[in-house]
Write a structure and sequence with these properties.
The structure holds 2 protein chains of 2 kinds.
Chain A (H helix, E strand, L loop, with lengths): L7 H31 L3
Chain B lengths: L2 H6 L11 H6 L3 H29 L10 H36 L7 H20 L25 H29 L12 H32 L13 H35 L6 H14 L15 H13 L1 H15 L8 H24 L1 H7 L3 H31 L5 H27 L14 H30 L43
Classes of the chains: A mainly alpha, B mainly alpha.
Chain lengths: 41, 533
């Protein structure tokens, strides 16, 4: 098996998946921050 | 076709701005990695200068050079600068440089976020360091920022809080980028259990960051509102609880310890097999041990607070979970030793630093076990024994792994071999002086010398003098490191692509220095080895 260039469509799909991962993680981080603050109010 | 030749075809992708705009606007993982590493080195020297002030003041009993308030701000700022400005950005710099090359990706998944993550840091540390020149001086209540003491900070207080928020935002953004990259950008054939351990330890570190940094951010936001907006989260007079801050802080603080050390485990797991010329012993157990350490790090926080007072069941729980961490950590130490067992070792500078890490970090681990035992901690708490413990873990642990990693990958980054003679001189001067610096602090602590004080009883004079001499030599020795790095960047013998005879992994298939974009064409899956390091 040799080197196969990744086509633009695959690369774009990777980028979309990475963006979704990032948004999910950012939401988790914000929820933890808000929970620490709000739970002590 | 070799990778170097393959990537030669992609030279037309390598156009980038030159001069200052290249560095301000870059989205390239290598450029951003370089900026992180340079920033971290500058912070090491700023934090190191503060350490020199501390050791100069403690050279002999009595007040010599600085007043107690300034001394306290030096201990506080030294910790904040070294943890958030030096070690954490250095790991992110290594991650930026190495992770895309190790997983066969062209760059990080979110390059603009990457640029933003870095450029927050100079602003954060300008805010923090500027406080030293403000009325009332810099923060002086300790890096742990315990209320009510920290609320007595003068004009520096809001600067401290916003700096911590910015550092946290930078760390979280960096962590998100690393997880998004590893989970979505791996080359075909690079399965999770084939990832180099440096990548594995960084994924686990990134999850620790995302789970723990928001907790710190919540705590310091509450400090801010207590100070300026009339809340009483931590004020007993207003119905709040100052001890609650300590619980919240250490729920962040203990995972933070592993944020600082887990990538070090990854680097040592790359270096020892290379110079032992053997695959890493127990790859899978190393991955599981790292995950176990990360999990346990969330259920041990109150071992920092035994003397604050808690129910017996709480003391027992936190003592047992703390001591339990020795099991996965022991798995790692035994695996590194087993990798070296009956191997064909050579002792180039990265290997020397890695072996010193193994021995000296383990000493720090043992003193950590002692501190984790509740009744014993009552004797050691807030003494120089604690200072000795965490400096063995963080200096001869984290910083030594950073040195080892720099010497290991510097030829790959620059395309030149570094000066091996100077590198070894740096190693031996550092290793002798760092033990002269920190080992006597165990004795000082056991004899009862408290930490965070500018003056002390004459009975502690001799060991303090020895420790200070070690400190000055260690500090000056680090100038040699700068000489080695600058010399290597400027020139030297041409490095081969593989650099080290026993090196395995995708980064070594690229040219030295690697092309601007690492793997526009993914590597041949047949070249991806698993479980080597």
């Amino acid at each position: 098996m040799g080197n196969h260039p990744i086509d633009d469509e695959t690369r774009a799909a990777q980028q979309r998946a990475a963006t979704r991962t990032a948004i999910a993680l950012a939401v988790i981080a914000f929820v933890i921050y808000a929970w620490v603050f709000v739970s002590k109010l | 076709m070799s990778e170097a030749a393959t990537h030669h075809e992609h030279d037309h992708h390598d156009h980038h701005p030159s001069g200052i705009s290249r560095w301000l606007t870059t989205t390239n993982h290598k450029d951003i990695g370089t900026m992180y590493l340079i920033f971290s080195l500058i912070m090491f020297f700023i934090g190191g200068t503060m350490a020199m002030v501390i050791r100069a003041e403690l050279f002999q009993p009595g007040l010599q050079f600085v007043d107690p308030q300034f001394f306290n701000s030096m201990t506080t700022m030294h910790a904040l600068v070294m943890i958030f400005g030096a070690v954490m950005p250095a790991w992110t710099g290594f991650a930026n440089w190495m992770i895309p090359m190790m997983i066969g990706a062209p760059d990080m998944a979110l390059p603009r976020l990457n640029n933003w993550s870095f450029w927050i840091l100079p602003f954060a540390f300008t805010l923090l360091l500027s406080t030293v020149f403000m009325p009332g001086g810099g923060p002086a209540g300790g890096w742990t920022m315990y209320p009510p003491l920290v609320l007595q900070t003068g004009a520096a207080f809001p600067f401290l809080i916003f700096a911590v928020h910015f550092m946290g935002a930078s760390s979280i953004a960096g962590a998100i980028n690393i997880i998004a990259t590893v989970f979505n950008m791996r080359a075909p054939g690079m399965t999770l259990m084939k990832l180099p351990l440096f990548v594995w330890t960084w994924i686990i570190t990134a999850f620790l960051l995302i789970a723990s940094i928001p907790v710190l951010a919540g705590a310091v936001t509450m400090l801010l509102t207590d100070k300026f907006f009339g809340t009483a989260f931590f004020s007993a007079a207003g119905g709040g609880d100052p001890v609650m801050f300590q619980h919240i802080f250490w729920f962040f603080g203990h995972p933070e310890v592993y944020i600082l050390i887990l990538p070090a485990f990854g680097i040592v797991s790359a270096i020892i097999p290379t110079f032992a010329r053997k695959p890493l012993f127990g790859y899978a157990s190393m991955v599981y041990a790292s995950a176990a350490i990360a999990f346990l790090s969330f259920i041990v926080w109150a071992h920092h607070m035994f003397t604050v007072g808690m129910p017996l069941a709480g003391e027992l729980f936190f003592m047992y979970t703390t001591v339990l961490i020795a099991v996965p950590t022991g798995v790692k130490v035994f695996n590194w030793v087993a990798t070296m067992w009956q191997s064909s070792m050579t002792f180039e500078t990265p290997m020397l630093f890695a072996i010193a890490f193994l021995v000296l970090f383990t000493i720090g681990g043992f003193s950590g076990l002692m501190l984790g035992v509740t009744p014993v901690d009552f004797q050691y708490h807030d003494t120089y024994f604690v200072v000795a413990h965490f400096h063995y873990v963080l200096v001869t642990g984290a910083v030594y792994a950073l040195m080892a990693g720099t010497y290991f990958w510097l030829p790959k980054w620059t395309g030149h071999m570094y000066d091996e003679g100077l590198g070894k001189l740096h190693f031996w001067l550092s290793t002798i002086s760092v033990n002269v610096l920190f080992f006597p602090q165990h004795f000082l602590g056991l004899a009862g010398m408290p930490r965070r004080i500018p003056d002390y009883s004459v009975q502690f004079a001799d060991f303090n003098m020895v420790s200070s001499i070690g400190g000055f030599v260690f500090g000056l020795s680090q100038l040699l490191f700068v000489v080695v790095v600058v010399k290597c960047v400027k020139g030297g013998a041409k490095a081969t692509d593989q650099v080290w005879e026993g090196a395995h992994g995708l980064e070594w298939t690229l040219s030295s220095p690697p092309p601007y974009h690492s793997f526009n064409t993914p590597p041949d899956p047949a070249t991806i080895e698993g479980g080597m390091r």
